[in-house]
Amino acid sequence: KYESDLFTSFYNEWKSDKTETTNPTYKLIPKFYHPVYEDDESLPAKLREEARSLSLQRRGQELLDNAELKQLCLLLDKYHSPPNTTSNHDQLINYQDLKKVIQQASPKCRKYFTPSVFAQLQENDAYSRVSIMALFNYAMRKTWLQQSRIGLSLYDATGKGYLKESDLENYILELIPTLPQLDGLEKSFHSFYVCTALRKFLFFLDPLRTGRIRVQDILASGFLDHLVELRDENLPKDMQESNWFSAPSALRVYGQYLNLDKNHNGMLNKEELSGLGTGTLTSVFVERVFQECLTYEGEMDYKTYLDFVLALENRHEPQSLQYLFKILDINSQGYLDTFSLNYFFRAIQDQMRQNGQEPVSFQDVKDELFDMIKPADPAKITLQDIINSGQGETLVSILIDLNGFWTHENREARVAEDPSDI
């Protein structure tokens, strides 16, 4: 009881301490932290949003517009510096002539063509000149990046430099009407398209699943370049098929999901997911996928499926290897050992027997995998070892997919048949 009374007295004394309000020096200390109001309906939030909008608008006005870029192109061509010594007849310009261009071009150009930029764009020309095309492309690229940053920042409600999942979702949804290659998509499919496009951003740029992505990372990733490609009405078919954000790609992925969903409940169970691709994913691997990934009563939704597809289709990427390593690391120990490798390869051997093939010795495969990865610890393969080796795609394919294993096993025969694969 004595301790309780003592605590109460000290607590009341501390609580009644008014030093902060009575001591005049506290008023002289500047406040360094101002919390951001999360309530969108509050007056400070609306004021902040309006101020940011005006600031971004001013920044947008400082960028080169189409007319100014066209004028810049003409001036660069007019003041190019002879002689023409390049094999591809690319026109060059020295810094003195570039200054003439800057004087006659829009004042906005000055910040683009500084001496340091000019020096960085030089390519060992005997007359210290720079390619006109390189200068113009630099101005174009920088303008586009700044425009993109401003466009993305408009969706950054808090002004903290990142977009939440809902922010990026709205950005992509409002971008659809500006992309002619997506004109053929039915409006009812737009929500699925946005989900498909959004997952690539989240999978590669938010591997820790924080639910937000830095604007800087979005710009650096190059994904926006792929989206902007869809503004080209004459985009070749092969480029459309290889572009995750294209209509054919989105329809392909969603169509695969619907085809796998045999019971038409909008979700995938283990048996249904096993039919993905060539249908040669091992049952052990699929079982582990459902253990590690987010499921709903043992079934996988479209978002989780998209992550799975992105991981399998990009097995060479560090984010995909991180995703797949978590599945392969059955004991959550941070590395793969002989037991882990054997656990998955036994399923490959079982598939061989089912197909009437003689199983390959695990000992041979194990030695090959360790030789391939060259781990720092000869008995353990870590994720970093896999990434450093550059052989992550091969290792994963050997362990999870019979077709992937045979592709690797018969690589020499395939090269002999088609030397162009070398």
List the helices and strands and how they pair.
Elements: H1 2-15, H2 19-22, H3 43-61, H4 66-78, E1 92-93, H5 95-104, H6 115-120, E2 130-131, H7 132-153, E3 162-164, H8 165-175, H9 190-205, E4 212-214, H10 215-221, H11 223-228, H12 237-242, H13 247-260, H14 270-273, H15 283-292, H16 302-313, H17 318-328, H18 338-354, H19 362-373, H20 383-389, H21 392-400, H22 402-409, H23 411-417
Antiparallel strand pairs: 1-2, 3-4
Helix pairs in contact: 3-7, 4-7, 8-9, 9-13, 9-16, 21-22
Structure explained in plain terms:
The chain contains 23 helices and four strands. Strands 1-2 form a two-stranded antiparallel sheet. Strands 3-4 form a two-stranded antiparallel sheet. The chain starts with a helix and ends in a 5-residue tail after the last helix. The mean pLDDT is 89. The longest helix has 22 residues, at 132-153. The protein is mainly alpha-helical. It has three domains: 65-146, no CATH class; 156-253, Orthogonal Bundle (Recoverin, domain 1), CATH 1.10.238; 271-418, Recoverin, domain 1, CATH 1.10.238.10. It holds the Pfam family EF-hand_13. It comes from Rhodnius neglectus. This is Serine/threonine-protein phosphatase 2A regulatory subunit B'' subunit gamma. It is found in: Cytoplasm; Nucleus.
